[in-house]
Amino acid sequence: MRSRVLCGMAAAVAVLVTGCSSDGGAGAGDAGAATSAAASGAPSAAAFPVTATDCAGRETVFDAAPKRIVTSNASGLEMLLQLGAGDRVIGTGFPPGKGTLPAGIADAGAKVPVLGDMVIPKEKLLGSGADLYVETFADMGGMGGGMGTTPTDQEYRAAGIKRVFLHSTSCAATAPAAVQDLAGVETDIRSLGKVTGTSAKAEALVADMEKKVATVRTALAGVPADKRPGYFFFDFDAGTKQPMAVGNRQVGNAVIGLAGARNVFGDLDGDFKPVSWEDVVAKNPDWIQLGVRNRGSEAENGKAFDEAEKFLREFPATKGLKAVQEGRFVRIGSEVTTIAGTRNADTVEQIAHALFPDLVKDAR
Asked: What mean pLDDT do residues 160-178 have?
């Protein structure tokens, strides 16, 4: 079963993390030391205890920063690496493909042991020695396909493993409203920053994201809503027999909208939804993003993009689409578009430049 399909089917549980201590009793020297420690990636004791609350209202209290972390997939891993907490990650599932991670953290990411090519087996997770498990999606192992089962709450407690769920993905399928900004992703980064004692670094990452998105918003301020082009994210790696559309609860919906486009499947409530090619034809998008996963090299990525474009140009149902006829294809990978992370803001810039080159400069 493909990971993208798993993402769309995942149950929804998330965290909203808040510090429980008061800042009022800390002296200037203590605050400065805490900021310095967090910025360097070292955990700061000043911010604890911290409480993580999932979507069901259940609380998990952290009295100190975790020392041995396992991540369910590359999304949480990338966030932790960027926060400077990568030296505490002892394993991951769904590891990042070759060439997927940014250059600055790729070497560190490559050193993280892979506990499972997909979902981490239950016994391996419980026996990992972790004191924190960062879960991007809930109960993925219970979805069948020979992946086994996930541990129960009692088994996690017995193994001494606390859990944190990423808000922007765990709650996506059942979010109460359409996702139109990157606030959920930013919440995840801040949450992990608080749990790992790296809040200063988290704030810096979020500030950089907000700056990039604000630049695009300013550049496109004069583009009226009715001039926004229709945009279809073509998930080539999810299969071509039945297209998998990005719904309005998926972070990709926010990325597309912030870039000045209109997700043609933005009326679908949910994260990923299977649709028909007839549905795509009826939407007749102005632009199509060739969503392929990183193959590990520029040459291999180019080949994959070519294959996706070739399919659309030759497939009877799509070769007559406006975007196909006019060659309006956007070549940006899947991971940076539909998986939560700081690079969602970069993708906003890149899509906006592709659609409005006279208004938005190429930020790459």
From this structure: 84
